[in-house]
Amino acid sequence: MPIRRKLICLVATAALSAALPLAATAQADYPSKPVKIIVPFPPGGTSDVMGRMMSEELGKVLKQPVIIENIGGAGGVVGTERGSKVAPDGYTIIQTGVGQSAVAHGLDPDLKYNSNSDFIHVTQVHSGPNLLVVHPSTPFKTLKELVDYAKGNPGKLDYGYTHAASGHMAMELFKQTAGIFMTGIPYRGGGPMMTDMLGGTIKLMFINQDVALQHIKAGKLRPLAVSSVQRNPLYPDVPTVAESGYKGFEALSWSGMSVPKGTPQPIVDKLEAAMTQVMQSPAIKQRMESQGFVVPVQGSKPYAAFVKSEIDRWTKVIKTAGIKNQ
Question: Residue 41 in contact with residue 72, Cβ under 8 Å?
Fold first, then answer.
């Protein structure tokens, strides 16, 4: 080997040897500065609440501040796309969820990220059912009564939905499963939709269990079924869609925490352990369960498998329904 080439190789080897201990030290010292969580929705909604709950408790475990950056837009897609491009060093965590990480893949074939391959999913944070509710002026007391009416009167029942939200997907899956046709009325936000629902302009919808609670307690909405496989502790007397005759039916609102691909495994392992510790604390479990949320199985492997299954589920529903991106 020529002397010049040999010298270059020796210098490169020495530089690499020096860099490896530094990288290992950086990973061992992680985190040595504040950590950021990108919540891809505006402040105030369920996703933001879950992100802030995690940031507060995770900071205590990691012994570093964990701050929230809200990047809203396109149903969570804008913030998630940005999160897929950040440095994979563990200092930026991305909140993933049903809309931006599953439904979006069925709606947009040109999505700029792949939720299966562009992220390492650290753990799921929350899961919650949607509730099928009707206006009290309707005669329906059971899911069977509603389905029987819908089959006998195609298109005469109006339901509300916000595009691509978990409630929209739950309704599309329910219509396909029950073999019924109802008329969907689109809304730009949950607030106007709830106003029309309470006023009787629309007669039914799927809505997150925590949002529905106060209206059900006040007698302004009547629950017929929950979309989880098991009954929800907030609504012990409300049957599931599955036990009402549609075995296997499930449509959940959910979120979790992920990091961009390329994040070193020791950092992923540390985050996974820290987040699991947070989610298994009695204070967090009590806080979530009091609002009807469920603490899912924790860990990277189960969450990655769950995200993949949700992409497959909602892509099939969206294609069958012919739903287009807006």
Answer: yes
